[in-house]
Design brief:
Elements: H1 2-16, E1 17-18, H2 24-29, E2 35-45, E3 48-58, E4 64-68, E5 85-93, E6 96-106, H3 125-136, E7 144-147, E8 150-154, E9 160-164, H4 182-187, H5 189-199, H6 210-233
Antiparallel strand pairs: 1-7, 2-3, 2-5, 3-4, 5-6, 7-8, 8-9
Length: about 230
């Protein structure tokens, strides 16, 4: 029984830190598309959206491309209009581009300063913030994990940086916000508590996705197997 309890504790610890391996945003960051670009919508005509490409994060395409039309930007549900900037993940089908892992409205097509347009109700701001960091780093930063209402980035050197909620508005030379690490945050907790309290609102991601669904199934299946095993011994 003691061994079973240890196994359950380990499993609970694993599921306590959420990674978003099955989410479209994560699949996009890890290259699950033919083309990933930034651009400006220059024409919307019937079933075709024409995009003027300004930056390519993945793949090669013409400077102006035709995309099968879409009704709304992902997550925010804002309708697309001529002049909108966006980040868009694309595959090709029958010689035309189609959306693969999402299309996200942005405030500019400059990858180094870009910010995704957030929802007015604040939902999924944490997820959109990871996209900001990914694009601002030109695709370098992609190892994110969620812990409670915070999001952290794991750098290649092992450093962990809190990227959401925003706790420092200064800029680094790579064009992205500087964030305090968990270690440095504790020493500045007193001076930063007021600002963080004003900014932090507990937000939990409610999206159903393949990664979370499979994780829950594995977890519940493991619990049932353990319970059956020890019930037989009683």
């Amino acid at each position: 029984m003691k061994k079973a309890i240890i196994i359950l504790v380990i499993l609970l610890g694993v599921f306590g830190q959420r990674v978003f391996a099955g989410d479209p945003e994560c699949l996009m960051m890890y290259g699950n598309q033919e083309v990933l670009v930034l651009g400006e919508i220059v024409e919307i005509n019937n079933e075709i959206v024409t995009l003027e490409v300004s930056h390519k994060l993945q793949g090669e395409c013409n400077d102006t491309i035709k995309i099968r039309s879409f009704d709304k930007f992902w997550i925010t549900s804002y309708e697309p209009n001529v002049g909108d900037y966006c980040l868009i993940s694309l595959d090709t089908k029958n010689s035309i581009y189609i959306i693969k892992q999402g299309v996200y409205k942005t405030d500019t097509d400059d990858y180094s300063t870009l910010k995704t347009i957030k929802r007015s109700d604040g939902k999924f701001e944490d997820v959109l913030t990871t996209i900001d960091w990914f694009v601002n780093s030109n695709g370098k930063y992609k190892e994110f994990y969620f812990e409670s209402s915070k999001v952290y980035l794991k750098k290649e050197n092992g450093e962990e940086i809190q990227v959401y909620p925003d706790i420092n508005e200064d800029k680094e030379n790579v064009g992205i916000n500087t964030k305090n690490t968990k270690e440095s945050k504790s020493s500045n907790e007193g001076s930063e508590m007021t600002d963080r309290t004003q900014k932090v609102e507990s937000k939990k991601i409610q999206k159903n996705n393949l990664g979370i669904s499979m994780g829950v199934i594995v977890f519940l299946g493991t619990v049932l197997i353990i319970l059956k095993k020890y019930n037989k011994k009683l």
